[in-house]
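## retry 2 of 3
previous attempt timed out at serialization; input unchanged, resubmitting
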Amino acid sequence: MGFGQGLSGLNAAAQNLDVIGNNIANSATVGFKAGSASFADVFANSRVGLGVQLASVNQRFTTGTVTATGNQFDMAIDGARGFFVVQTPNGEQFYTRNGEFFADKENRIVNVQGQQLMGYAAGTSNLIGMTVPVGNLPPVATGNIANKVNLDANDAVVPNTSNPETVGRVDLTRDGMTTTYHYRITGGVYSWVDSTGAAAGPIPPAGTYMTGTSTPATSVTFAGGVPAGALPGSGGNVAGGTITPAGPVGTVYLDGVPHYYRTDGAGTYEWYQDAGGTTVANVGDIGYPVDGTYQSGAEADATVSFSSPGTPASALPAGTDNVAYIAPVTAIPFDPNNPDSFSNSTPITVYDSLGNEHRLTQYYTKRPAAGGNSTWEVNFLIDGQTPTSGGSTTLTFDSAGRLISVPSSSTVALAAPGGTASPAAPMSIRVDFSGSTQFGGGHTHNFIADGSFTGEYASTSVSETGEVVANYTNGEKLVVGTLALADFYNLQGLRSVGGVAWAETATSGQAIMGRPGSNGLATIKGQAIEESNVDLSQELVNMIIAQRTYQANAQTIKTQDQIQQTLITMR
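## retry succeeded, writing output
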């Protein structure tokens, strides 16, 4: 046995202690991967071992503990596969698991070595350096509003057509004479007016009357007391028969006035002044139809009594021409300043192309039903102005409260939303009502409107799939890019370059690039770091073993020295 074996053992143990010491020294280094020494024996043709040699220092690329930091630019690779790609100022690319990054004075995302984090430009596969966007986020003009409303089925109808006040009419007959009266009823009290309702009219005196009608039903023309055709046979009208003093007297209403007659049915008529037929009328006398064309009607056989002038003992019968009193109805056109002209309103903030806020107000007005369906009118105002087009639309609901309008959307346009001071692009907003209902139970309104005002940069966040997202004060987000991760077929072939980084070599093979969470690559944990994977307990045990190895090799050298000393002292 020579000194060579012991010396090689001392060197190997010392190198092992170096590796262990390096692991312990970097136990708090972010992204550090612990190493382990691998040894190989040395043989010669003498078939006697010549000692040991350090074959390699292998690194354990297991995942360290992920710890949250709260730093917006910190990020950890949450899995075994993948390295961050960083680029040095001279363009060389390194690979690291250290996710401690920050923004430098040029708004680049870099590590403490000044190496820039690399990723893919948003929507492309181009590898670029990650930067923090500066300046304001451009505004987005509102283009769509999705409404989902429930319109209260119990809301009162707002009339859109006028129903003028109607004057009632009644024909009262007594003693063979018929007089037409006009009236209104208010709270059960009759007021007697003229036919237009504009002034006071005659009041029926107390007494009992026959009520009749004079609704135009048939026209008849007289010449010399002879009608051009047969008188209509209705009510008390008499058609045919022999003219005799005892024969029946017929009555016909001509333009609302009763006339009395007998006829032989062969075209001969005799006219009388009253229903008794006792006085024969001559041409020009009362009851004799003057030549001309009349409207003829029939007399009803109901009676009504007036106990005092103008007050009937019971309700007036509704004859053909008698009109039951109808209260006046006046159309209420939409007026945003008249709350009686709409049922509900909802304001929504919208934005023009410059990011200026505008108020789009939707006014809902329940209109009279049509075709068995409920009808709602929706009017739009933008900042109190009537839109250039699309100022109103109609929603129709069936008996189940379902929206059946086709289409269920309206496009509201305003030509110059910014005015002359700051003219913006014309606004065109599609307002959709799909899914809206009309149920009883109150008015509810939910909506989603796109568009936004300009926003200032606020912070950066990283998603699980590596998207670097800039957050703005207006609540909008902008994807700056997506992190690039690299993997290698032979991790032990990587060359350590310091700064917890490695470089590609021929042994490691080319980097396999991809996005986090794809192709087996790990995902990203934002605002966190990956700690060293050094196990201090294991390293301390390894250090004791290496120390014992060192001591044992030193003992072999001591023993060899003693043997040589014995040989030298032999005489």
